[in-house]
Specification:
19 strands, Tumour Suppressor Smad4, 6 helices, 6-stranded antiparallel sheet, elongated, 2 domains
């Protein structure tokens, strides 16, 4: 558990394409004005603007779905400010607050009625094999996916953990997820749901052909390396928000990010495992 900061200045990161998010931005801005809290707002994808504004901010509230929060996480990975998600739409795993209760929850938070939960994120890099190009580095909160492109052809991926060879997968792809991301693509591919407060990497092949290994949970002290051995077309997807092309010979490395992402959990929020049950109950049968 992390120290609870005093809340004096609040930032709001929002989805600029959502009418509901724009309306909610006006509501929470009015709430801050009435109570005398300094505040600002910026689109969740404007990382440079968020980073600059976060330097003297005590709390970042994200207005949107899980995708909006994943965008905003890029900024809090640089400037460590606690983040609180407000869900607009479907039931999400990253948001602790529903839109109709945001004012009541903010009242509790500014009174100090919350805890801060550290979540492990991922750092990664794409290393071009045999090409004179520098490695491209990135951060992800949920997952890193190496997968085939639009062509319906499998890829061949050689996967190692630390100095150990794990397997060579012939598959649609491979997911390396954080515990927070274990409820996303990794779960859909057959991986386990992992408590989001733990520190592990979850490595799961996607539709592996004749593979004896379904999913493994890895220490945060290890680096997962994925070498593209054969692919007609392959992509690296970072949190589902950005895709990069890779070719045979390229290597993707994924490890734990040293700095945690700090999530605000208001008093009375639904516990994670109850949220998992609720999510499963809402799935079509």
């Amino acid at each position: 558990m992390s120290e609870r900061p005093a809340i004096r200045r609040i930032g709001f990161a929002y989805n600029p394409t959502s009418e509901a998010a724009l309306e909610l931005r006006e509501r929470v801005s009015g709430w801050c004005d009435v109570r005398g809290f300094a505040h600002w707002a910026a689109p969740a994808g404007a990382t440079a603007d968020l980073v600059a504004a976060l330097e003297d901010t005590d709390l970042l509230v994200v207005l949107g779905g899980d995708g909006t929060l994943l965008l905003a996480a890029q900024a809090v990975a640089i400037v460590s400010v606690p983040i609180l998600g407000v869900n607009l739409g479907k039931v999400g795993f990253l948001s602790q607050v529903e839109a109709d209760e945001v004012e009541a929850v903010l009242e509790r938070v500014v009174r100090g009625e919350f805890r801060v939960e550290a979540r492990m994120a991922l750092r990664g890099a794409i290393h071009p094999g045999g090409r004179r190009a520098e490695s491209w580095r990135f951060m992800a909160l949920n997952d890193v996916v190496v997968a085939r492109g639009a062509l319906a052809r499998v890829v061949r991926l050689q996967v190692s953990i630390g100095r150990s060879h794990l397997a060579t997968f012939i598959a649609d792809g491979l997911v390396v997820s954080s515990p927070t991301g274990s409820t996303g693509y990794s779960f859909s591919a057959g991986g386990p749901v992992v408590d989001p407060s733990s520190r592990n990497l979850i490595v799961t092949p996607i539709a592996g052909y004749l593979s004896a290994i379904r999913s493994v949970v890895v220490s945060p002290r290890r680096v997962v390396r994925i070498e593209v051995l054969q692919a007609h077309e392959a992509l690296v997807s970072i949190d589902g928000r950005e895709d990069r092309s890779v070719v045979s010979g390229d290597v993707v490395s994924v490890a734990a990010l040293e700095r945690s992402i700090r999530f605000v959990v208001p008093d009375g929020a639904m516990p994670f495992w109850d949220l998992v049950r609720r999510k499963v109950e809402l799935l079509p049968s």
